[in-house]
């Protein structure tokens, strides 16, 4: 069965190669990119944010490992400092003794006495030669140690800078993830607000009821006012007779009195 699948895939590839020729790889890569993009677009944004947060937190092991490397390098540098300091102290002592022996040999004496023992000039010269050879070797070793210490210090400084940059980037990424999550919440709220539909039929009915009550109260007020002005007793005195001159004056002169009308007519006749 497996062999048949292999043969089928190879056959399909051969046919596709014959039909598409040199464009086969282009078709394959384009199809792969479109499928990958489609799959990525279908992933929820919240899931992507959680994935980003996890990736940022996954930097912790690397940060811890860098801290361990830096701590180990710091110990190595401290040990080198101790070795260099001890070698420098010994080098100063050896140099002082070499200079003393050289000074004694230059006096031309044949016998020398050190620490209660007597030595010939040849013995002193041989000891001086051996001391000087060891001193040169120790001095070269001290130079190598100092070079090694300088190299380790550079590596330590570079590791510290890398760790600081990594920690700063992690903090920045965490802040950006929080900002993305806040933006996602705002988008969700905005989408929920746009999709929210209110049933205003109840509101319309309430407004109609309020209008009906207001109209009924207005009618009741008018009726109460009419009841106040209505008299059920028989009037005993009739209305006062109307003065025709005042009615004419009021009509033609905009409310002027009869006397004012007579003055106006007299002026008109004159």
Model description:
With 270 residues, the protein is an all-alpha fold. It has eight helices and two strands. It has helices spanning 2-20, 24-42, 45-57, 59-105, 121-195, 201-229, 244-252, 258-269; strands spanning 111-114, 117-120. The relative contact order is 0.05.
Q: Could you tell me the radius of gyration in angstroms?
A: 57 Å
Contiguous helical run count: 8
Q: In what order do the strands lie side by side in the largest sheet?
A: 1-2
Task: Give the termini separation.
Answer: 138 Å
Q: What's the helix-strand series?
A: HHHHEEHHHH
Which percent range describes the beta-strand content?
A: under 5%
- Which class best fits the helix and strand makeup? mainly alpha
What's the assembly state of these chains?
single chain
The residue fraction in helices comes out at: over 70%
How does the overall form come out from the CA principal axes?
A: rod-shaped
The unreliable regions are none
Counting DSSP E segments of at least 2 residues, the number of strands comes to 2
Main sheet: strands, sense, barrel: 2 strands, antiparallel
Question: What's the rounded overall pLDDT mean?
Answer: 77
What key phrases describe this protein's structure?
270 residues, 2 strands, mainly alpha, 83% helix
Structure summary:
It is built from eight helices and two strands.
């Amino acid at each position: 069965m497996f062999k048949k699948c292999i043969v089928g895939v190879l056959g399909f590839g051969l046919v596709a190669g014959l039909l598409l020729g040199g464009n086969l790889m282009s078709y394959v890569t384009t199809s792969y990119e479109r499928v990958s993009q489609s799959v990525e677009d279908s992933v929820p944004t919240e899931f992507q944010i959680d994935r980003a947060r996890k990736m940022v937190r996954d930097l912790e092991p690397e940060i811890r490992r860098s801290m361990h490397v830096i701590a180990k390098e710091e110990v190595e540098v401290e040990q080198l400092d101790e070795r260099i300091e001890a070698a420098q102290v010994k080098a100063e002592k050896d140099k002082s003794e070499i200079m003393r022996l050289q000074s004694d040999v230059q006096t031309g004496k044949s016998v020398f006495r050190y620490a209660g023992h007597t030595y010939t000039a040849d013995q002193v010269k041989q000891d001086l030669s051996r001391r000087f050879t060891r001193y040169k070797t120790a001095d070269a070793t001290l130079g190598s140690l100092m070079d090694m210490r300088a190299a380790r210090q550079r590596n330590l400084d570079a590791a510290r800078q890398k760790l600081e940059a990594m920690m700063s980037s992690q903090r920045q990424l965490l802040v950006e993830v929080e900002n993305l999550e806040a933006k996602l919440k705002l988008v969700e709220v905005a989408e929920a607000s746009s999709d929210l539909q209110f049933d205003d039929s109840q509101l319309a009915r309430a407004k109609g009821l309020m209008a009906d009550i207001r109209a009924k109260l207005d009618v009741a007020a008018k009726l109460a006012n009419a009841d106040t002005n209505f008299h059920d007793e028989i009037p005993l005195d009739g209305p006062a007779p109307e003065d025709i001159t005042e009615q004419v004056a009021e009509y033609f002169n905009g409310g002027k009195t009869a006397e004012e009308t007579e003055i106006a007519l007299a002026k008109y006749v004159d």
